[in-house]
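Lab channel / #folding
Pinned by the channel admin:
"Please post every new chain as: sequence first, then the structure tokens as a reply. Keep commentary short and put observations after the output so the thread stays searchable."

First post following the new format, from NK:
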Amino acid sequence: MQQRSNLSLYALYAGDFDAAAAEAQRVLKENPKFEVGVRTLALAKLAAGHLEEAQKEYGRLNDMSPRGASMAATGLADLAIYEGRLPDAVAILHKVIIENQADKDTDSAAFNQARWRRHNSRWANQVKRWQRPQAQRQARMRGFCTASRRFI
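Reply from TO:
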């Protein structure tokens, strides 16, 4: 089972998403509770553009165990980022960090905190980028109004 799981991961890394999904499904036939297999299947679905199927697999992973829930939250954050919902990704990661700490899962908490910091700073930078053009437009408009008053 471990070799087939590795094969599905290598196919995913190589960009062969159909093969990755097929191998992950074979792994899950042998052991339906194998969290890494469900995560690999969800990632293959996400990478292939099957977002609803990926979300379904993350939901399945979420119901398996606290570790599975942590892995699912990370995947759902990835899905939110893929869909352009960066604030949602930050909120998902923030929630799972609190759950990881409550479960005393320090490894997952540290991993998710690093992701949260990266995405939170990205989100803040994106907001700054959106605000900057607005401020520049307002400054140009003030300059235009001032210049037009000189000619009137």
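NK: DSSP finds seven helices and no strands in the chain.
TO: also worth noting, The longest helix spans residues 106-151.
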